[in-house]
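Internal ticket #5521
Category: modeling
Description: The requester needs a full-assembly model to guide mutagenesis choices. All entity lines are attached below as received. Residue total reported by intake: 312.
Assigned to: D.W.
Attached entities:
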Amino acid sequence: MSRQLFKSLKQLKNLEPDPAFLPRSKKLIFANSPSTIFNLTTAWGGSLRFALTLGLAALVIYVAAIFSNPPAGGRLVEQTPPPDFNIELRKAKYFREVAPNVYIVVLENQEKNKVEEGNKN
Amino acid sequence: MLTGEQELIRRLKGGEGECFAKLYDHYLPQIYRFVFLKVGNKQEAEDLTHEVFLSAWQNIENFNDRGFPFSSWLYRIARNQVIDHYRTKKEAVPLDEVNEDSFPTALPTQSVQTVEQRLDQLADLNKVKEAIKQLPEEQQTIIILRFVEDLKPAEVAAIVNKSDGAIRVIQHRAIKNLKTILNSQHEPPII
């Protein structure tokens, strides 16, 4: 039984496809050009890989820069001297007291100039 | 393995599509046989075999040579195609579709045989073929690859993704089941 079974199994190896099937199938397969498919895939894959690598490198540089040089904003605030409010108040007092006097002097000068011009004419 | 197969694949991956034709010519008969013995229908076997090679052609970039011939990859694709075919197929393939046309060259004409001997042999082959179809899918695959295609257990193991030991166990079980099925076919019908 076993011997006959193995003999039969070996004989199944003589099974062959229809000779007309081969050229028909081959023609259809070659009609789907894989060279275009896989070349495009490779090209896109390559570009994508390149873009990803570039993006990752930029990110790493950015992160490294941030960690080695933290934003200067904090330090600038620290370095700015605190405002001297006494000076500011003094300036305000000066303008409040002096400005009306300056204004009066300017008006007097203008009046004086008009009178002088009238005399000349 | 086809002579210079690795070089052919390297050139094929490099864009030389004509190299695929050599692989196709060499491996088509065995892939067709594998599919045919599983589906038992000439037309479906042709369609599925075509799909196997089309898939290989379109996915050649994914092929990784792991020391086994290109056929191992083709068998894996073929096996998946057949499984998908049965998964999506609504109606079952009737076993009586198996006929003498299935074995166009099964009987060597050069040997000296009487017509009766040849018919007996043909009947035996059809019985074996039908019996294979009744086995579970994994056992079918192992019987075909080990005893029809004469592949080594290691190669079969790579195709079905199991260990050598597991292949031997399944093979033993498959032979036992095949004998049981054939014995039940030989029993005279109860009248």
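Resolution: model delivered.
Comment from assignee: DSSP finds eight helices and no strands in chain B.
Ticket closed.
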